[in-house]
Request: fold
Amino acid sequence: MGKITGFLEYQREVEPYQPVKDRLKNYKEFTEKLPEENLKHQGARCMDCGIPFCHSGCPLGNLIPDFNDKVYKGKWKEAAEILHATNNFPEFTGRLCPAPCEEACVLGINEDPVTIENIEKNIVEEAFKNGWVKPKPPKVRTGKKVAVIGSGPAGLAAAQQLNRAGHHVTVYERDQKVGGLLRYGIPDFKLEKHIIDRRVEVMEAEGIQFQTNSHVGENILVKDLKKEYDAIVLCGGATKRRGLPIEGADAKGIYQAMDFLKQNNQRVSGEVFEEEALLAKGKKVIVIGGGDTGSDCIGTSNRHGAKSVTNFEIMHKPTIERPVDQPWPYWPMRLRTSSSHKEGVERVFSISTKRFKKDKKGNLTGLVTCEVEWINKPGQRPVLQEVPNTEKEWECDMVLLALGFVGSEDTLVDKFGLETDMRTNVKAGEKNYQTNVAKVFAAGDMRRGQSLIVWAISEGRQAAHHVDAFLMGTSYLPLKGDGDLPRV
Ligand SMILES: Cc1cc2nc3c(=O)[nH]c(=O)nc-3n(C[C@H](O)[C@H](O)[C@H](O)COP(=O)(O)OP(=O)(O)OC[C@H]3O[C@@H](n4cnc5c(N)ncnc54)[C@H](O)[C@@H]3O)c2cc1C
Ligand code: SF4
Reply:
């Protein structure tokens, strides 16, 4: 640890954002890099607390105090090596992770935590800038062949790890380009897509094959894959959407958030799409659902030039402070205000939509809501209850449904004959990531349900270890928190 008194001397400082009026003019990322000296001070705030709870807060087990120390000392290359030892893609997590590590930071008990996520982003950007991120092809090939289905963060992490173990890896992706929700869900203003491309180039140079426009179970047959490959890793995500089957749900103007977001990402990257253009320009938009997807719809609608944007959340408004029943170092459910929220939105909590209204031509004209409360009874799940006499009518001509996802899509599940759990996630044990089908493994959202990028990378790495052990009898690929240390 570099500076013993750093946490006493320096305050937390995060990257500033460009002004709202400027950033709404385009889809580019809008954070402004801190000067190197300031970043070193942020690294110096790490306290050498003895038991770094941030390690266990991070689903990858990132070696956080170690890279903080290197940043404080200006040893960026060493910091990048430490970071990459546990995280294949810090350029994604450094931009998009909600940073559970920061909630678990010991300094966070009575001060603002260390800016771990931002330090991570700066380390990896420094590494790319200086050419330190080089392809690492394996020295020896095992002759074994592995197919990875799905190119989101879980599939990419599994592919890179398995390739490093010497196996021949082919990634099958049904979409036009690689990246999963990083590419087609998350907007460019949170992650510009050249960031994915530069990493995929490194992976291709390492020997990984990418086959896009390859829909397994449709234009790629499962029986052919089973014949050709020694192991198959399913990383197909959990993108079965939740609908809102209430009166008027067929009105023209109601869309699934993912249709809206995917199309916008395609538009920004110049991809051709055949569907009708979904544009919020000049419209009164209501986004139903208050999570990450809802937030991305708000940012995108404002960039389209929506007349107004309103966001409904069925849960009650959380407190800004950590709730008392969710103590440090746990992840607390507190009010989170994203950069998109700050760009202009009316947020309404404890609200439920009862019916949509449409004109004679079937166009959406508004909706009717009521206030709701959650009733807690000991030993039972909380029950949602309408508050009497709270019906309210809202005018709108576009509704975006960001209601979450209900599990993996059917194609892979049906065509492979996979067992699923009650939440329709694919059953694959945490001990070996194996499904009920011989030599078929599952990881990422497909196994754990819609989650986070950091979890997807972690699952991809864990699954790779178990696939490697299945193929070779033992594996030297690291498990969570091992870094690149060999494991017998
Ligand atoms: C709008 C939105 C915003 C989000 N924002 C954040 C955020 O800011 N931070 C964060 O940490 N997390 C965020 N998440 C969650 C995060 O994106 C996911 O948890 C993560 O991408 C899951 O990775 P994955 O690899 O398991 O699946 P995915 O990223 O869903 O990738 C699955 C891939 O499998 C492919 N596929 C599926 N079936 C087949 C098939 N039969 N054949 C071939 N390919 C197939 C899909 O096309 C897709 O490319 C967000 C999610 C959404 C929807
Ligand atoms: S990946 Fe996320 S949780 Fe892990 S160190 Fe980075 S910001 Fe923290």
